[in-house]
Amino acid sequence: MRSFDMDRPDVTESAYTVDAGHFQYEADLFSSTHTRFGRRKSIDNYFNTANLKLGISNSLDIQLVVSSFTIQKNIVGNITQEMSGFSGYTIRAKQNIWGNDRGKTALAILPFIDIPSKFLGGKVWGGLIVPFSVSLPGEWEVGAQIESDFLPDENLSGYHLSYLGSVTTSHALCKNVDFFVEGVISKENETKNIQYFANGGLEYTLCKNLIFDIGIYYGIKNASAKTYFLGMSFRL
Question: Which top-level group of life is the source organism from (predicted)?
């Protein structure tokens, strides 16, 4: 098999696919997203948000992302509203264009469709991600991606485009421990809102096919989300 490569823990997706006939599990065992706007604060806690991946061919895998359980809290002053339930699922397919087995660079395309549950409401939406990976001297790994999403309008009357770009780099910190740092920018066309994120985290390789990770996606603006996560990945 190829080296163990994951789409997590950073936002930037990997350009490599799962080997044909093999299964890979990548999950936020727990993540918590905090957003504050004036007196209003929201806390979304996610449990076992898992990406189930199956290698179909040497350059194609299919993926099912499922959020097992979500608790949402909306706090305004002393008033707290809480909801919980199943968030929905996302169907994805990653096609590697080049670099799966040789060379220092790799490119892939990753279309996806998101189907929300009744708990969250909303409409079906989708998008396309184009991830790129490059191996640099000194065992530095760099990844980047561009993404375009076709999102439902806030009033659900139609759809609009949003865009995201990211760059990430990773390197060994010590034996069995790697770190990553990442910058992300996104633009929402409906609201013209631009968000900036500075992300980082650690990965611990317990064995060849089992990795744990911990980190943060940190929104730079005061009203931007801050997400803390603990995750795990393994393959068979």
Answer: Bacteria
* pLDDT band per the 50, 70, 90 thresholds, residue 157: confident
**Average pLDDT value for residue range 25-29:** 97
Tell which phi-psi region holds residue 101, choosing left (phi > 0), alpha (psi between -120 and 50) or beta.
alpha
3-state secondary structure 167-216: EEEEEEEECCEEEEEEEEEEEECCCCEEEEEEEEEEEEEEECCEEEEEEE
Measured CA to CA, the distance from residue 55 to residue 53 in angstroms comes to 7
Give pTM, 2 decimals. Answer: 0.91
Tokens in use for 209? Answer: 């096919």
Q: How far apart are CA 122 and CA 97, in angstroms?
A: 33
User: Residue 158 has what pLDDT?
Assistant: 87
Q: Can you list the domains of the chain with their CATH numbers?
A: 23-235 (2.40.128.130)
